[in-house]
Design brief:
Helices cover 65% and strands 0% of the residues. It has 261 residues and is an all-alpha fold. The protein has one domain. The N and C termini lie far apart (51 Å). The model has no long low-confidence stretch (mean pLDDT 93). One of its GO terms (biological process) is sphingolipid biosynthetic process. Keywords: Fatty acid biosynthesis, Fatty acid metabolism, Lipid biosynthesis, Lipid metabolism, Membrane, Transferase, Transmembrane, Transmembrane helix.
Length: 261
């Protein structure tokens, strides 16, 4: 294994020091704790004797915003990295550059942290509509872990291999929120949503791709890529892969087997 990878814990990236939230990690963690308590305890209690809120216009506007935001950040970040910025697909270490394009990339990723915080609102919408079946442990854990990882990248260097995971996830979010938007119109669009079951397969493919991309630096000479970056990429996506596989088997394969019997 390359000696650079044995430097497991990365130093704080000096290029992003003083940026909003990046020097206030306890505030971010407090926000995530508040999110979990709200969606798992407060909202179920508060909504117990209330009717579901009618929020479709707001949800559709939110979905459109998330589609546009993820698409825009994908274009802006990819052209400064893997699709125009000269990044190495097999192994890209932290560049440590401070030129205008690199700093713009870091700034875009920092902005994207707030998009992922806004992403937490979809769980609030589920709660206000009493769609409790959607607020699973997997759903809540996925949101919290992704916010943590995006924040970690902003603090310890994101102009490297893990940025590929961010870009892949942005594409997935464009597709997912497009589905949510169309599904919000009910039966009128149901015949066009035959691809719903393939969304989970797409998520599974996403996690497997990110795991392979994260493992690659262990197999080839690689410099300036901390071991922690690799460990977080592999461990988090392995967790998501196992959880989503369990969900997929329960929702689709088990139900299909029951119908066959």
């Amino acid at each position: 294994m390359n000696s650079d990878l044995l430097s497991f814990y990365p130093p704080r990236d000096p290029r992003t020091r003083g940026w909003l939230l990046l020097e206030s990690t306890p505030y971010l963690y407090s926000l995530l704790v508040a999110y979990v308590l709200t969606v798992k305890i407060f909202l179920p209690t508060w909504m117990r004797h209330r009717k579901p809120f009618e929020l479709l216009p707001y949800i559709r506007a939110y979905n459109i915003f998330m589609i546009v935001a993820n698409a825009w950040y994908f274009v802006q970040m990819s052209k400064r990295s893997y699709l125009g910025g000269g990044f190495n697909f097999v192994c890209q270490g932290i560049t440590h550059k401070v030129d205008s394009e690199t700093m713009r990339l870091l700034d875009l990723h920092h902005q994207y942290l707030f998009i992922r915080i806004i992403d937490l609102l979809d769980t609030i919408f589920f709660g206000l509509r009493k769609k409790w079946e959607h607020i699973s442990v997997l759903h809540v854990a996925h949101h919290c872990i992704v916010v943590f990882l995006v924040n970690y990248g902003a603090q310890y260097g994101v102009d490297c291999q893990p940025l590929g995971a961010v870009l892949i996830n942005q594409v997935i979010h464009v597709i997912m929120y497009s589905y949510y938007f169309l599904a919000s119109f009910g039966s009128r669009f149901q015949k066009y949503l035959w691809w719903k079951r393939y969304l989970t397969q797409l998520q599974l493919a996403q996690f497997m791709t990110i795991i392979i991309h994260s493992v690659a630096p262990l197999l080839f000479p690689c410099e300036n890529l901390p071991g922690m970056h690799i460990a977080l990429g592999i461990s988090s996506c392995s967790f998501f892969l196992i959880m989503f596989l369990q969900f997929y088997f329960q929702k689709y394969l088990s139900s299909r087997g029951a119908k066959t019997r």
